[in-house]
């Protein structure tokens, strides 16, 4: 029988995604953000310093958004010589401006960034289409878990940390909720879903213990993350940046942990469906074999993912022929080594734990092929 998309499920997905796109934090009533197009620029106060620029650029902008649509403003673009942050505009560029409004009139304007959201949404649309075309209903459920995860992180986890909440506690609660939503939205409330959920939680608990034990001994202090200093100096001096760094390490490894747990549980469920009479020990050994193969590639995947984020730093080390000892003790490198190895330890533990749990759940008394298929159909 062909499965159709439940209308309620689709409505929930659309509503949640729309909420994330349209619901933004309240802005200061005197400062609003508006889209615009650059009409002309004045670069007379810009000083070129090698490959960077300092000074300021004046851009005449035609506003295309907000209640001031159609008006022209002169917006200042401050240049600090930081190429990773500065924007330099040309006529025709689309950008976002911050407008200072008093008594219903624009008193001042400042450029913020180029407007990139349209292309970002286009890229997301390609992802959605490919996901649904290939995975069909499971892809739609995966999309729901993706949007729900974004909502949980943006609206619950981050505000909790900014409010002074204990980072490790918030991480445990958030990951438990995320794991529940992601795994059961994709696998349904089935035995393989339960096995993957329990395996992920157990592995992440071990990763948290390793993180806390080794983290304080490396003396990183949590200030190796991008914009950590800016965050602290912007009025959040009370934040425990070391514990927040721990939280980022654990969250970074959680996605791969869920992936491995689901791979092992789904493979064992398929084996059980094909051979209903398989013994628990044999099924667990099969799960171990699958786990070894997945872990063997996933740990390297983590290394490549984290290394890619610091490719230019690695190139700098090589170009200067920096010694291995100096590289390994460099603060940023030590933080990434810690992040990679902690995540890998969690992955190594998730696979066998999931195999043991899945082997027990799938071979419980009365767990036959018909029961498993019935549970999957109900989901």
Describe this structure in words.
With 379 residues, the protein is an alpha+beta fold. The protein is 62% helix and 15% strand. The longest helix is centred in the middle third of the chain and has 46 residues, at 117-162. The model is unreliable at 1-9 and 365-379 (pLDDT under 50).
Number of helices: 11
Broad shape: globular
Approximately how much helix is present in the residues? 55-70%
Q: How do the SSEs run, as a string of H and E?
A: HEEEEEEHHHHHHHHHH
Gap between N and C termini: 15 Å
Instruction: Please tell me the overall pLDDT.
Output: 83
Number of DSSP strand runs: 6
Strand content: 5-15%
Characterize the largest beta sheet: strand count, sense, and whether it forms a barrel. 6 strands, antiparallel
Q: What structural category characterises the helix and strand content?
A: alpha+beta
Rg over C-alpha atoms, rounded to the nearest angstrom: 25 Å
> Would you identify the regions where 5 or more consecutive residues have pLDDT less than 50?
1-9, 365-379
Topology (SSEs and partners):
Blueprint: H1 7-22, E1 31-42, E2 46-49, E3 52-63, E4 72-80, E5 94-102, E6 105-114, H2 117-162, H3 167-187, H4 191-215, H5 228-233, H6 241-274, H7 280-308, H8 311-319, H9 324-329, H10 331-362, H11 369-378
Antiparallel strand pairs: 1-3, 1-5, 2-3, 3-4, 5-6
At a glance:
The chain contains 11 helices and 6 strands.
Provide key terms for this protein.
alpha+beta; disordered N terminus; disordered C terminus; 6 strands; globular; six-stranded antiparallel sheet; 11 helices; 379 residues; 62% helix
């Amino acid at each position: 029988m062909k499965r159709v998309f439940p209308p309620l499920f689709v409505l929930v997905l659309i509503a949640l995604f729309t909420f994330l796109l349209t619901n933004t934090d309240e802005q200061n009533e005197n400062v609003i953000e508006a889209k615009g197009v650059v009409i002309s620029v004045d670069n007379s106060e810009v000083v070129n310093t090698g490959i960077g620029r300092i000074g300021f650029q004046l851009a005449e902008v035609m506003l295309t958004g907000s209640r001031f649509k159609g008006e022209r403003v002169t917006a200042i673009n401050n240049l600090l010589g930081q190429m990773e942050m500065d924007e330099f505009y040309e006529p025709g560029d689309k950008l976002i401006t911050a407008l200072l409004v008093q008594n219903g009139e624009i008193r001042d304007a400042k450029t913020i960034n180029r407007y990139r959201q349209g292309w970002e949404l286009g890229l997301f649309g390609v992802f959605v289409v490919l996901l649904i075309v290939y995975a069909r209903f499971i892809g739609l459920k995966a999309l729901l878990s993706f949007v729900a995860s974004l909502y949980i992180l943006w609206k619950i986890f981050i505000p909790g940390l900014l409010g002074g909440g204990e980072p490790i506690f918030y991480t445990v609660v958030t990951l438990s909720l995320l794991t529940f939503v992601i795994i059961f939205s994709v696998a349904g409330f089935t035995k393989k879903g339960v096995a993957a959920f329990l395996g992920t939680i157990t592995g992440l608990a071990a990763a948290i213990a390793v993180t806390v034990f080794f983290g304080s001994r490396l003396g990183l202090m949590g200030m190796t993350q991008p914009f950590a200093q800016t965050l602290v100096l912007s009025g959040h001096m009370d934040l425990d940046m070391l514990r927040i760094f721990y939280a980022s390490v654990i969250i970074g490894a959680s996605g791969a942990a869920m992936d491995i747990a689901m791979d092992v549980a789904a493979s064992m469920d398929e084996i059980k469906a094909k051979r209903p009479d398989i013994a628990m020990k044999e099924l667990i050994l099969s799960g171990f074999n699958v786990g070894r193969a997945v872990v063997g590639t996933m740990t390297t995947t983590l290394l490549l993912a984290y290394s890619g984020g610091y490719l230019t730093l690695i190139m700098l080390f090589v170009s200067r022929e920096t010694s291995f000892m100096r590289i390994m003790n460099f603060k940023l490198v030590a933080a990434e080594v810690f992040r990679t190895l902690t995540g890998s330890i969690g992955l190594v533990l998730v696979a066998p734990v999931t195999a043991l749990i899945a082997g027990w759940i799938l071979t419980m008394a009365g767990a036959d092929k018909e029961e498993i298929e019935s549970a999957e159909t109900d989901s």
